[in-house]
């Protein structure tokens, strides 16, 4: 039986973990603030894809060190935050054959893990899903529900195919790519624009952000900058990617980005992983990104104000 340890089993981790468990994988979780309730009662999940159900992990750990047998797959689904050493967090449970799977937003977030675990296969995953925690142990899946997965830095991966088969079997569409870094840049075209913009005016949903021709043109120009950076980094974007993202987002019901939800609840935000890394890549490759630089400066000010208010 495939053993899976999910580290940071919040919204994304519990949802995907539950899907994997349904397909027969032995799924254990490491929780922090939700530990007591999850250990006692499992997760209460509402989902249009998986149905409303309880997910009882095989084991619930308070820390990674409590997991004494290295799993086949270690899936990391914490937020990617400044000052958090993700390699140190997962190290106690990584065995020589453990495949490390990152299901996290941002660009250039894999190198640190690949350097720390040179012998382990690293899979990088991009969740396209709208899911949140409505209370401790309660996971509310609202919309979408897909995963793009691939071997980092590139190439084919039977280990990715096995995870994809399990998720597809459970109804979560999972595509395996041999160019996951390119896929990450493509997702950044959406995340590095909508996510920071969604917190600049309080909390803005997608309908408001695309509500006027001016705001739509602004988002388009910001997306063009991300595409220019991706191209300079060696990952040219499809010419229609912006049109497709804007059209697809307009067609969706109004949506709050994961950063907007973190903002709302006063939680740390993934500004560095999503936007800071994009801006740093632009600087490295000599790409002028005035809109992204402005968004970066403004979101850092917002973050500083939230910290000061805490
Ligand atoms: N939610 C969504 O719809 C989407 C999310 N993503 C990405 O997926 C990733 C996960 O997001 P999401 O599931 O929403 O985040 P959540 O905040 O719901 O879950 C993260 C979990 O990690 C836990 N955690 C953090 N640090 C530690 C630690 N040191 N030890 C143990 N547990 C820890 C948190 O615990 P605690 O509660 O104590 O902080 C929390 O349970 C992010 O990169 C996000 O951007 C991508 C697409 C959509
Ligand atoms: C693209 C989207 C909306 C869902 O996957 C997301 O990544 C986010 O909210 O941060």
Automatic annotation (TrEMBL):
<keyword id="KW-0560">Oxidoreductase</keyword>
<protein>
    <recommendedName>
        <fullName>2-dehydropantoate 2-reductase</fullName>
        <ecNumber>1.1.1.169</ecNumber>
    </recommendedName>
</protein>
<dbReference type="GO" id="GO:0008677">
    <property type="term" value="F:2-dehydropantoate 2-reductase activity"/>
</dbReference>
<comment type="pathway">
    <text>Cofactor biosynthesis; (R)-pantothenate biosynthesis; (R)-pantoate from 3-methyl-2-oxobutanoate: step 2/2.</text>
</comment>
<dbReference type="InterPro" id="IPR003710">
    <property type="entry name" value="ApbA"/>
</dbReference>
<keyword id="KW-0521">NADP</keyword>
<dbReference type="Pfam" id="PF08546">
    <property type="entry name" value="ApbA_C"/>
</dbReference>
<dbReference type="Pfam" id="PF02558">
    <property type="entry name" value="ApbA"/>
</dbReference>
<comment type="similarity">
    <text>Belongs to the ketopantoate reductase family.</text>
</comment>
<dbReference type="InterPro" id="IPR036291">
    <property type="entry name" value="NAD(P)-bd_dom_sf"/>
</dbReference>
<comment type="function">
    <text>Catalyzes the NADPH-dependent reduction of ketopantoate into pantoic acid.</text>
</comment>
<dbReference type="GO" id="GO:0005737">
    <property type="term" value="C:cytoplasm"/>
</dbReference>
<dbReference type="InterPro" id="IPR013332">
    <property type="entry name" value="KPR_N"/>
</dbReference>
<dbReference type="InterPro" id="IPR051402">
    <property type="entry name" value="KPR-Related"/>
</dbReference>
<feature type="domain" description="Ketopantoate reductase N-terminal">
    <location>
        <begin position="4"/>
        <end position="153"/>
    </location>
</feature>
<dbReference type="InterPro" id="IPR008927">
    <property type="entry name" value="6-PGluconate_DH-like_C_sf"/>
</dbReference>
<dbReference type="InterPro" id="IPR013752">
    <property type="entry name" value="KPA_reductase"/>
</dbReference>
<dbReference type="InterPro" id="IPR013328">
    <property type="entry name" value="6PGD_dom2"/>
</dbReference>
<feature type="domain" description="Ketopantoate reductase C-terminal">
    <location>
        <begin position="179"/>
        <end position="303"/>
    </location>
</feature>
<dbReference type="GO" id="GO:0015940">
    <property type="term" value="P:pantothenate biosynthetic process"/>
</dbReference>
<keyword id="KW-0566">Pantothenate biosynthesis</keyword>
